[in-house]
Write the structure tokens for this entry.
Amino acid sequence: MSAPLFSGTLFALAAGLMWGLVFVGPLLLPEYPATLQSFGRYLAFGLIALPLAWFDRATLRQLTRADWREALRLALVGNIVYYLFLASAIQRAGGPLPTMIIGTLPVVIAITANLRTARAGMRVEATLPWGRLLPSLLLIGTGIALVNQVEIEHLRAAPGADLGSYLLGAALAVGAVACWTWYPIRNAEWLRAHPDRSPRGWATAQGLATLPLALVGYAATWAFFAATGHEFPMPFGPRPEVFVGLMAAIGLLASWLGTLCWNEASQRLPPTLSGQLIVFETLAALSYAFVLRGQAPQPLTLVGIALLVAGVLWALRTRPEPAAAQAHPN
């Protein structure tokens, strides 16, 4: 295994462990609206990015107006909208169902990245031959299906299950998948087209771009509650210490550190491969869910997890075909 492949995989693993934490927040704060959790998390991310911007000021000065517009788009779709969908899905369908649907991301991203053509000015990426990509996708897909089967049976056994709520949660989770299919591919395009730029500085730039969006969203939520006579106590809800502490922890670990680790991975790995490594997020989220439940995974779940890991290992053995001669000069 080459050094970039090995280090990129380790960074992807670290990002997955951090991102798995975002599935915990809505379960620990079920009485908090999803909008408040989404804007609260990214308000914390933006505030954390402010002092970090001092250390990354040289990198941030290199960013053009077009770069900042790209950071704003990534922040809006990959941060705010994605987590709004995800938190809403978890609150309506519980933790397992959204985790299962988000677990399809490695397959969806790998296929989308392989089908996607490079945008003008972006580097032409090497593609993975479908014949060599298919075994890892089948392993990952089968593993996810087995885990999904166990979780669906768990949901059916839950007392007072609301099918309409589950279906709405599923639809919202699909929206989250759409956001996070677009985000890592688009983010990787920028990073791999700018190999001289600091991934940490790009993570900080996205945090800064997120801050005004989160501020406006948080203020709008507060104003909406006031205008409609909503009894939810603002600004920090009925458990302010827990809310503020959890948002700060998720903002630091999942948003900034997770984005930093993923940027490092994206600069080292082709999108078709890095997309499959998002499976680490699914594994982490399932692990955290079982810890919160106080239950050990069932044997079929363990088989599914083993297949997920096998699919990742197979993917690491797959080498992309050389990029076309007209590749981006960077």
